[in-house]
Amino acid sequence: MRHIFTLLKKDLLLEIRQQYSFYGILLYIGATIFVLYNALEEPDSKVWNGLFWVIQLFICINAVAKSFLQESRGRMLYFYSIASPADFVLAKLIFNSVLMLVMSLLSLLLFTLFLGNPMQKAGEFIGLVLLGGWSLSLVFTFLAAIAAKAQQNAAIMAVLGFPIIIPQLLLLMRLSSAAFAPLLTIPLSSVLLLIALDAMIVLMAIILFPFLWKD
Amino acid sequence: MYKSWWKIAAVLLLIYTVIAGFLGPVPKLQLLGETIRNLYFHVCMWFAMMILFTVSVVNAIRYLRGFQLKYDIYSRHYAIMAIVLGILGYSTGAIWAAFTWADPNSSILDNFKTIARDPKLIGAAIALLVYFAYLILRDSIQDIDKKARISAVYNIFAYAILFPSIWILPRILPSLHPGNEDNPALDVKNDISGNMRIVFYPAVIGWTLLAVWITTLKIRLTLLKEKKMMP
Questions:
Q1: Could you tell me how far CA B52 lies from the centroid of its own chain?
Q2: CB of A167 within 8 Å of any CB in chain B?
Q3: Which residues contact B3 (CB under 8 A, 6 or more apart)?
Q4: Contact B133 A142 (CB under 8 A)
Q5: How high is the ipTM of this complex?
Q6: Are the CB atoms for A201 and B161 separated by under 8 Å?
Q7: pLDDT tens digits, residue range A142-166?
Q8: Rounded distance, CA A159 to CA B6, Å?
Q9: Do B146 and A211 count as a contact with CB atoms less than 8 A apart?
Q10: FRET label pair with B227: which of A78, B187, B190, B209, CA 20 to 30 Å apart?
């Protein structure tokens, strides 16, 4: 537990020391949404919903991709000697989750500012956005580990990740369209399903990461 | 000879499938008509595909347990064969859909647009995309051991997310495809009449055995090539 905390602190410190990457993602969010704002005015809720989740997907890839790529070979070797793989991957998962939650909320704010607010149930939708951001960050964190080991750039992450994430995105889009309609209720079973999937992803990451990390 | 009994069984079962499949009695249903015989081909492709993907994952796990390259080769070839079966499943499905779902009054493109939205088709497309990505990932890594290890990890991770969602998605989204209520493909007990079941089960086994046979041949060829390279 203490190890995880220390590793988290290290990631946070790195983020604070090298702020360019954090601001880079912020700029990415702002620029993308501004382009959308210029491309279409006042989209209806269906288009809004689709665009929102696709943008979330791209933000996630950009925010998470660097998490393993930034670690150099020597540094990985150092971590290898002082921490267990489960602690290491859990620290990364937690850090990226928090990062993605912040980014999701920010992009939601910008979306409502620029593209209008179709939300009928704001509270529920914000909850869904957080859940969605969390799911995306978990899947892509693990894929970032794979891509980093394969010595590939973020492009291979998209190739590996898009097919896997489609089911969750479909579920999220369906759930959030319920949040846009005043009469529909959000089915609790689907939300629980998403949470169960997330738990399974964390479990798979802990089981499989040790194989990735030793060379 | 004693080891090839299952190959003989595969041939016999497939001969039986084709003969009984085209000549045997089938229920006369509206809309479906004689296209119902496609069940012995189309559905079997998906069954065989899922079985072969599972075999591929099992071999990936076996590789990670002992790091023997043999299992990595197994895993790859089973995945490729499963992709071929998936493509065959799509083509037989397309023929079937052309006679049943397609609206003859609208254009091919419009029909495609509506049919492709079906959750079962999406699920199958995801499965194929994931394994295409698996092949791309493999080819992007040079080092043989690293390639085997990383692709085995991706194989297991993708499979673990993919298959629950393939089984769950169709229950949540609306669909035209048979077996809507609580089953991802079809409800064998209720959707298929007894006459058809005695052809359907052997057909599934026959097609799967044929696919395994093709794969073992390819595996043998690859292993021989490896041996030649590393004497």
A1: 7
A2: yes
A3: none
A4: no
A5: 0.88
A6: yes
A7: 998 888 888 766 778 888 889 899 8
A8: 38
A9: no
A10: B209
